[in-house]
């Protein structure tokens, strides 16, 4: 959680922050101003693990085993 990712949504390259990690996907938060300009109703989006690239890792996140 907290990683910065890049992905495409509605043909626009977006940058978001991972807020929840699931088995097959992540939920990422997009800057509300950018999501509004892109015509995306919600600032959160679900992305399959194949649909994004991590551009900055959050090394401060807690690891739960």
Distance between the termini: 14 Å
Low-confidence stretches: none
Strand order, biggest sheet?
A: 4-3-2-1-5
Query: What average pLDDT do the residues reach?
Result: 88
| SSE arrangement, N to C | EEEHEE
| Amount of helix | under 10%
Structural class, judged by helices and strands? mainly beta
Cα shape: globular
The rounded Rg comes to 12 Å
Strand content: over 45%
| Annotation field: number of helices | 1
The total of beta strands comes to: 5
Largest sheet, described in full?
5 strands, antiparallel
Task: Name a few traits of the molecule.
65 residues, mainly beta, five-stranded antiparallel β-sheet, 1 helix, 9% helix
What are the SSEs and their pairings?
Blueprint (H helix, E strand, L loop, with lengths): L3 E6 L2 E10 L3 E6 L1 H6 L6 E5 L3 E5 L9
Antiparallel strand pairs: 1-2, 1-5, 2-3, 3-4
């Amino acid at each position: 959680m907290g990683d910065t990712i890049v992905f495409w949504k509605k043909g626009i390259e977006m940058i978001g922050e991972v807020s929840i990690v699931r088995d097959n996907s992540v939920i990422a938060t997009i800057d509300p101003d950018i999501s509004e300009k892109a015509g995306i109703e919600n600032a959160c989006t679900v992305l399959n693990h194949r649909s994004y690239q991590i551009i900055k890792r959050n090394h401060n996140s807690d690891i739960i085993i």
